[in-house]
């Protein structure tokens, strides 16, 4: 039997986008065919999806590091790279995903429900897509963006309509086994139940699930015993059934004191308000006096029944071993479950519609901040677009750096730097503090196009219309041969004259 794991920390990374391709079309009788580099493919996303066949988070406990596929780079002849495959991680229903700061990312309820944890990086544009009237032959391409990387904690909260709660060895697992087809591990020692056991119960037209969760002891809300493991799994249940052992031989215990201890723990536990959970003390509760097959336990159950009913509680005397009193209990649970479902449906109908307006992906806003660091004064540029442009730039290519300068100038970044007090040679950082690009700012940064002998965006090679004849090609080839022959003769003369001789030898 596989181990049960209901809380793990995942380290996920989406796929990186593929780099764009800088290529020139080459074909016989078509010199300077123009740019034909393709775009890079998008990186794969990391997706959480509810799978009814998965009941535990054990796989992620053993292999917590997961990464999606990278996008393929673009190629020549206008061939775009393929997108990386999404990494789909199946999780049980009822899984709650939280970010590193504790914020709830997703509450996964319902078969097939899914959420994108980390988005893959965009693919870089090839030089074919970067060509324009001003820049007819770009000699560069954009790099692919890195995929998102984050840590997320997964926590499983059991989804059930009814939760059986009580002390260890109160007979909760036995009740689940006789009310449903579930076969939990049953023994006569405390804490037999270490993981939640789910069973499906049918009573008339109603069909609902019952959860047998780990036993409860005093101080459970503070983490004693399996308390927090227990209380987390009853957080979603609408009906709580107190299972009380009337045949216990432990000193100082009786049905009324057991009930008071459990009720105290329920009042102390605070459910997650972000998930819409009500306090456990406000849930519908039923009291089951178990082990009535023992004569002394039956007498005790009849004796305390009136006191429990005086508190406004429904009380049922049952025996999981003799299977007595079970039909009445089953139909009572079905009645309360039906009422809870109807109330939940009314709340959903009256609940105002939530309108989500996500921030535009191409957010044009940015800010320039003047900072003092131990190394001196710096100017930090913050914004989605400038950061993305920097990540897409190949800084080993002068023309690509010039293209970045054009983009920053058109967006108004240079103007804001001047307003902030930046001058030529000032240190400028673009991006967050943990992953920023640092450079010395020059307001008149030049691009690689100027190095080709013309204004930015032009290429003198495209304006050449003369095609050399065969005789001209032969003459050029012969001149290169003569130059090589002379160079070899000079090297031989220097060698014979001893210019290359080591004086130490």
TrEMBL record:
CDD domains from the UniProt entry: Obg
Binding residue positions for Mg(2+): 173, 193
Annotated Obg domain residues: 2-159
Alphabetic keyword roster: Cytoplasm, GTP-binding, Hydrolase, Magnesium, Metal-binding, Nucleotide-binding
Subcellular location: Cytoplasm
Chief site of localization: cytoplasm
Enzyme category, top tier: hydrolase
Domain OBG-type G: 160-338
Cofactor: Mg(2+)
Positions annotated to bind GTP: 166-173, 191-195, 212-215, 290-293, 319-321
GO biological process: ribosome biogenesis
Alphabetized InterPro entries for the sequence: G_OBG (IPR031167), GTP-bd (IPR006073), GTP-bd_Obg/CgtA (IPR014100), GTP-bd_prot_GTP1/OBG_C_sf (IPR036346), GTP1-OBG_CS (IPR006074), GTP1_OBG_dom (IPR006169), GTP1_OBG_dom_sf (IPR036726), OBG_GTPase (IPR045086)
Key word GTP-binding present: yes
GO MF terms held by the record: GTP binding; GTPase activity; magnesium ion binding
Keyword check for Cytoplasm: yes
PANTHER family: DEVELOPMENTALLY REGULATED GTP-BINDING PROTEIN-RELATED, MITOCHONDRIAL RIBOSOME-ASSOCIATED GTPASE 2
General function of this protein: An essential GTPase which binds GTP, GDP and possibly (p)ppGpp with moderate affinity, with high nucleotide exchange rates and a fairly low GTP hydrolysis rate. Plays a role in control of the cell cycle, stress response, ribosome biogenesis and in those bacteria that undergo differentiation, in morphogenesis control.
Known partners and oligomeric status: Monomer.
Family note: Belongs to the TRAFAC class OBG-HflX-like GTPase superfamily. OBG GTPase family.
Descriptive protein name: GTPase Obg
Lineage: Bacteria, Bacillati, Actinomycetota, Actinomycetes, Micrococcales
Gene behind the chain: obg
